[in-house]
Structures are given as C-alpha cells and as structure tokens.
Amino acid sequence: MIDLLQERILKLLFIVIWVLALVHMTAEYYYLYWTVRWFDILTHFLGGLWVGIAVVWV
Questions:
Q1: Within the chain, what is the greatest distance between any pair of CA atoms?
Q2: Is the dihedral of CA 13, 14, 15, 18 positive or negative?
Q3: For residues 23 and 46, is the Cβ–Cβ distance under 8 A?
Q4: What pLDDT, in 10s, does the model give residues 14-50?
Q5: Cα–Cα distance between 7 and 25 in angstroms, integer?
Q6: Confidence (pTM)
C-alpha cells in the first residue's frame, strides 16, 4: 500500500514528466534546441530532476 508521501511523490513524478514532454515537443516544433543555446540545459535539468525524484520514490 502506498502511503501519503509516496502518493504525493508519484503525482510530482507525473507532473514533471508531462512538463518535460511539453517542453520537449515545443522545442522540437519551434527549433529551440538549434536557436536557443541554453534550452538543451533546461530539458536535461528536468530529466535529471525526474530521475532523482523517481529514485526517492522507489
């Protein structure tokens, strides 16, 4: 059974992955990876944040 803290972390995981997916799709559509040099750092940060939260959740 998932306790309250694990449930909140799981919800946070879903939020972060959806934000990451939205940012990535927007970047691909508007060519932001090629025109804004720092934009790749943002997506890598969000991906690392998601992995870190997933490790805490497990």
A1: 47
A2: positive
A3: yes
A4: 999 999 999 999 999 999 999 999 999 999 999 999 9
A5: 27
A6: 0.88
